[in-house]
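User: Can you help me understand a structure? I only have the sequence.
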Amino acid sequence: MKKIYHKCVAGNVTDIYHYLNHLTEKTIEQQQLLQKYEKRFFTDPPNIAVEVEDQWIKKVITAYYHYFIVVLTNKLAQQSAEQQLINALHTLLPNKVKLKMEVIEEGLKEIFYEKGWYFLGGRTSPHYGPYIWRVMEKKTYDVELPNGIETVDVYFMDDFIMLSWLHFATFGNLYAGGWAKENGLYCVASGYKTDSDSFLNSYLKHEAQHFNDYKLFPNLLQNDLEYRAKLVELIYYPDFTIFEKFLTTANKNEESPHSYSAFKIIEAFSFRFFRCEKLEMDIKKWKGLDYKTIQQFARQLYDQHTNLLIDQGLKQKV
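Assistant: Let's start by predicting it. Here is the structure, written out as tokens:
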């Protein structure tokens, strides 16, 4: 089922809905999932519940939920959906003057903090969608990366009431497990076992690479940041698990950095190993290769990209 949910990563639920709707023979699980999508996204009024007692918080979350529904189903164009969200949120702030989204979310952050909650706004590309949680603990890690050891503070977050739009779009089955900021890394504690490859590579090395790039290449676009971090995952991951995930999520949409960077990686690998102009999507063919060759080529692409950035004069002097 996780492969089905990955259809949402690019920022819409219509693909997954049409896929399930057109299956001639559905399993019970697929039938139940189709019903869940119909109730949440394709009925009027939508079937959503906000289970918090604080009425102001309930109104904020409801505003985001309605935005998620219209933007994830393309019922409204992205710009129109965002303006509708702005109109809904600005009425919940003391200052009733219409403001930009960034200013509105700063205002929300202050009020949430007063109520005992952490709030992080902004985009998880391509859509807005905050993370709202109550508990946080800090730990420090020394992380091996291709260009050396990066020491990072990791803030483990817990007790969430919102995990942005992807969590909403997949009924909690997919969501961003964390992110990097200039002061450290943030991790959704419930999403990882800290001794797992998923944490040590897909989270810790991926986000530490972002943290490193923020310092060395501060003007990088999000697509470049994700490309480099995904290559680091391939370099250090011990098997094909993460490569298979990239096959599933690869998409040529440049507005979705995670999917697009996976696409660029699989495109380069497909040409290198199979001389394919298109993506080679058959995982059996890939697993016929020694995974060490995958790691080696990932390192080659990483070094090439680093040298390109340096040649372009993008490296920050330290």
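Now, to help you interpret it: The radius of gyration is 21 Å. The mean pLDDT is 94. Let me know which part you'd like to focus on.
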